[in-house]
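Re-running Lipoprotein to confirm reproducibility after the cluster update. Everything else is unchanged from the original entry.
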Amino acid sequence: MKKHQFISLVLGFIVILASCGKTDDQEKENHSKKETEVHQKTKTNKETDSEKQSSEASKQKENQKQDNQDSTEDQKQETQKNTPLSDEEIKKEVAMMLLSPQLKKQFINGRQLLEGQYPGTWGVEQGKPYEVILEANEYRLSDGRSMPPIYGGPEGMRYFEASPPSGSFATIVGVSREYVCIIATQSAINNYEEALNSGTSQQFRVQDLKQNITNQAEINQVMNKITLGNNEFLKPKRIDE
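Result of re-run:
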């Protein structure tokens, strides 16, 4: 009987030890799993932070690049703004203006220059202006003639007297990087705004002309008709006789 009890006690002790060992193994496994999860979470957070820092650095670099490009473009535009127009730039702006559908009929236009003729008047017959056909093979811009200064115009604008005349008035053309204008007058001009408000003049934004007058072949053809410089006034010439 005592032997049987002893064996039971031994078996019970073995079961308890086995149970404790299993519990310890489970706790170790859980602890190891928890450490792995913490390590993985820490690693993921570090990778996320690294990616975020890399993305921010890349974004800052891109922004700096864009800022540098904007600054360079601004400097380029400012330099161009302060640089006088070349003869070719002047001719191009005037050519686009002459090709504009908004140009008033009282002025010689680009289409007439391409056709080589324009309607005009030649004296008076029976109390009325005698209408004739005049030659339009050249559009002359003269800046050497004695012309009083014009105040209040756009910055950097140069003024020319255009010929041949298209009526009983003088034609003044003004050109700058931002605006080009054409003025009809029978007297000296002193104030730009007053001339524009007279109803016989027009002003065009160069940027609008570039957007709307896009036939480069026509622009080039009209440019070839324009002469620029210290030229003599071009008198009208009849071609219908």
